[in-house]
Design goal:
It is built from 11 helices and 7 strands. The chain is of the alpha/beta class. Helix 1 links the parallel strand 1 and strand 2. The chain folds into 2 domains: 191 residues, 3-Layer(aba) Sandwich (Rossmann fold), CATH 3.40.50.150; 76 residues.
Length: 281
């Protein structure tokens, strides 16, 4: 994997994309998503590109002029390398992502042999940069409201004699990371198994469906709750597999839930839904 664009899967469908100070991704993403709205933020006042809507601003200092949950993807290399508070930026980006959105970025690995070699010789000019280990960056992302993080290494092999010297000095080569110059990162706001659930219906429908599931689970005003459950199921055009996935994610006492659902109705879909729900108590 050579660039963040390689972290975009065949199942990804981005309608709105924000590119941060990485103009090289504009043609790649325009070709990949010809109908998408592409926005680009940069401090370069002379930058122009008809393939994107360009905003001249400093994302490290200025609030982005977009609504919450506006983008399907935010992409930009090394976006947290020269910032005062990286968690503020990471958490800020998450607010502009849809619930199914992803942030694609990269960071320089402080454990790479080239950096350690410079330190061994008393040289290091990265005094204004923030460098991270993989573990540090992962903790930062989870603390900034991302739910699922994937990493891909960009390798620059070490001279064998230097690698041996580092190991002899006590540096652990954790999963070979002494030779990882950059880590590419894909951080998602939702776990993969929940992304599809969140992409198919509006937040209002999902919230009401979740509320009704809980009412049926705990037998709250059961006849009316079961009736409303099926009314929403029908009006929203839901199907058994979707309901099963949603129940798996939301309902704790699943056996009790289906006992209550069966007590309140005799719909044939009940057994279809139940067959798709795993791990009964």
């Amino acid at each position: 994997m050579e660039s963040l664009a390689d972290f975009i899967g065949g199942d990804d469908f981005f309608e709105r994309i924000l590119i941060v100070e990485s103009g090289g991704y504009i043609p790649v993403l325009r070709e990949r998503f010809p109908a998408a709205e592409i926005y680009f933020v940069t401090t370069d006042e002379d930058f122009t590109d008809a393939r994107a809507k360009v905003f001249v601003l400093d994302y490290r200092e200025e609030r982005l002029p977009f609504e919450r949950e506006f983008f399907d993807a935010i992409i930009g290399d090394l976006t947290l390398e020269v910032v005062v508070n990286p968690q503020d930026i990471a958490a800020g980006f998450s607010t502009y992502l849809k619930e199914t959105g992803v942030w694609l970025t990269s960071f320089r690995n402080i454990r790479h042999w080239k950096i350690l070699e410079k330190l061994m010789h008393g040289r290091f000019r990265g005094i204004v940069s923030r460098l991270y280990t993989r573990a540090d960056f992962e903790r930062l992302l989870y603390a900034s409201f991302y739910k699922h993080v994937r990493f891909s290494p960009r390798i620059k092999p070490a001279p064998p004699e230097l690698l041996e010297k580092l190991l002899a000095c006590g540096f652990e080569n954790l999963a070979g990371d002494l030779e990882v110059e950059f880590w590419l990162v894909r951080a998602a706001r939702s776990m993969p198994e929940l992304s599809l659930l969140k992409s198919m219906y509006t937040p209002e429908i999902r919230a009401e469906f979740s509320r009704l599931l809980k009412r049926v689970e705990y037998g709250v005003d059961l006849p009316a709750s079961v009736e409303k459950f099926w009314a929403l199921y029908d009006s929203a055009g839901m199907f058994a597999d979707y309901a099963a996935e949603f129940i798996s994610a939301v309902v704790v006492h699943r056996e009790r839930f289906f006992e209550n659902l069966r007590a309140g109705s005799a719909r044939r879909e009940i057994e279809e839904i139940a067959d798709g729900v795993e791990d009964f108590e």
